[in-house]
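Many introductory courses stop at the sequence. We go one step further.
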Amino acid sequence: MAKFNLEFIKARRKELGITSATMATALGFKDTSTYWKHENGRHKFKAETIPLLAKLLKCEPQNFFTH
């Protein structure tokens, strides 16, 4: 079963120089701490967020999953 790869998301965001505040705003989260909780696994990203997340991180949605 595929596992959601949060480390990839964090590393890719940092590689592109995108702040967590920018990600929070772009994804429609109420604040940076809400995004942080998603990126660190305290909350799960909703399925409808995945395409936008991929666009922001300039990758394909399948990059977020490992086996």
